[in-house]
Design a protein that fits this description.
The protein is of the alpha+beta class. Among the domains are: 73 residues, no CATH class; 26 residues, no CATH class. 54% of the residues lie in helices and 14% in strands. It has 9 helices and 2 strands. A two-stranded antiparallel ribbon has the order 1-2. The longest helix is centred in the middle third of the chain and has 27 residues. This is Transposase.
């Protein structure tokens, strides 16, 4: 029974979503957006999100479809990183002396070299510690921080800056490569 004491009637989820679960999985694996799927099912995005939240079967199906899509994209990216072989088909139409046209198919094996851009993207995202463009090197000590503060305060009061504190042995051992 429903909240108002009226017997449950068949919901739109039961009539429109459940029979199309295989279609939904396929659409997600093909990369359709939520808006596209909602349009195909004739439901609102709010209903879609509510159904995903309320129905574990749909939620798992969506996650599985996204996982399949991600795997396909990862395979394609890896293929671009490594380079690959492919066959190119050319259709050649020749005309003989009598004016008759002959169609000939020509197969050519080609090689797509690795893409530097794909390799860079792959490495920056898979191993960010080693390949990130953003490197942070912090060489700061409490003594240097104190000297900067004093220099800043004196600059504000328009006085001559004091001698910057001599570096300690710890500061001398820090080197930049």
């Amino acid at each position: 029974m429903s909240r108002k004491g009226i017997a449950n009637k068949i919901s739109k989820y039961d009539t429109d979503i459940i029979p199309r679960l295989s279609d939904i999985k396929e659409w997600i694996a093909e990369g359709d957006s939520v808006r596209d799927i909602c349009h195909k099912l004739s439901i609102s995005p709010d209903s879609w999100y509510r159904y995903c939240k309320d129905h574990e079967t749909l939620s798992e199906l969506v996650n599985m479809g996204k996982c399949l899509l991600n795997q396909d994209v990862e395979k394609s990216l890896f293929k671009l990183c490594m380079g690959y072989e492919f066959e190119e088909l050319k259709t050649i139409v020749e005309e003989d002396r009598n004016g008759k046209k002959h169609t000939k198919l020509e197969k050519t094996k080609r090689h797509q070299p690795p893409s530097a851009q794909a390799i860079s993207f792959f490495l920056r995202n898979r191993c960010p510690e080693e390949w990130s463009d953003k490197k942070q090197l912090v060489l700061d000590t409490a003594q240097n921080e104190q000297a900067r503060k004093e220099l800043f305060l004196q600059m504000l009061s328009d006085e001559q800056p004091p001698e910057i504190a001599e570096t300690s042995e710890d500061d001398e051992n820090l080197e930049c490569d």
